[in-house]
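Propose amino acids for all 197 sites.
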């Protein structure tokens, strides 16, 4: 399983900086390409684990933290740990826990009351999770996998997240970012369309 949104890296051969290696588990990794490969292998394993589970609610803060840990646990020491630093994206770090609990409550309400169609519930969940940006890295990949799990839990099919488009990965990523920005402006339609593209 390849993620076109993850592979859109023009700097694959760039050496990692000492700061970029902080918390890195495999000592052989020195370039962005090696890091991408290691992360993608770990994420593929987490994907298999997540979709082979027989029970359990995806819409749960503890599960979301465990999912991130599974996705990156062989690569990063901080996998599954909430970020503690401020970024230029996401909520302030002191709000992450509260916002995650609020999100989970909202999504459970949407499901219980069929507030939106199943695709829209999962895509809105994805958007809010990305907006919170709870982890130091891997937030988009985590939110896409979590949304895929929600839509499956609701009886739907996994999203394609741009895989159906025969365009370069950089263009797919630009389309994804534009769709997220539209959702930030309360227009969910582009993100719904992108998720099924």
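Proposal:
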């Amino acid at each position: 399983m390849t993620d076109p949104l993850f592979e859109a890296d023009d700097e694959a051969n760039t050496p990692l900086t000492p700061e970029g290696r902080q918390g890195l588990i495999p000592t052989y990794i020195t370039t962005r390409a090696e890091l991408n490969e290691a992360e993608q292998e770990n994420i593929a394993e987490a994907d298999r684990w997540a979709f082979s589970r027989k029970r359990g609610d995806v819409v749960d803060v503890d599960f979301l933290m465990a999912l991130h840990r599974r996705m990156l646990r062989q690569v990063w020491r901080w996998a599954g740990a909430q970020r503690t630093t401020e970024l230029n994206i996401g909520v302030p770090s002191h709000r992450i826990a509260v916002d995650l609990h609020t999100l989970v409550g909202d999504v459970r309400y949407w499901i219980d009351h069929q507030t939106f169609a199943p695709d829209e519930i999962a895509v809105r969940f994805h958007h809010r999770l990305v907006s919170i940006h709870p982890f130091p890295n891997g937030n988009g990949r985590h939110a896409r996998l979590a949304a895929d799990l929600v839509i499956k839990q609701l009886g739907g099919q996994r999203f394609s997240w741009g895989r159906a488009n025969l365009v370069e990965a950089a263009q797919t990523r630009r389309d994804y970012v534009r769709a997220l920005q539209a959702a930030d402006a309360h227009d969910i339609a582009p993100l719904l369309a992108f998720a099924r593209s």
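The chain has one domain: 32-195. The chain has a mean pLDDT of 93.
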